[in-house]
Amino acid sequence: MPQYPCTITECPRISRALCHCCQNNYCIEHLRDHNDTYLSQLYELTNQINKLSEYFRGQHRLQLDQWRQESHQAIDSYYEK
C-alpha cells in the first residue's frame, strides 16, 4: 500500500486516512482537526435547517388556525339562518 504525506504542508507525518469528502490525505492529528471542522459546519447547518423547519411549521399552523376559525364562523352563520 503506498504511503502519502499528510496534506498539511508543514506536517512531516505520513497520512493515515483519506477524507472521502475532499479527497485529501491526513495524518491522525490533522484528520481529527479536519473532522472537527466538518462537524462544526454540520451542526451549524443542522441548526439552520431546524430553525427553518420550525418557522414553516409555525406558519402553516397559523394558517390552519385561521382557516379553522373562518370555517367555524361560516358553519355557525349557516346554522343561524
Automatic annotation (TrEMBL):
<protein>
    <recommendedName>
        <fullName>AN1-type domain-containing protein</fullName>
    </recommendedName>
</protein>
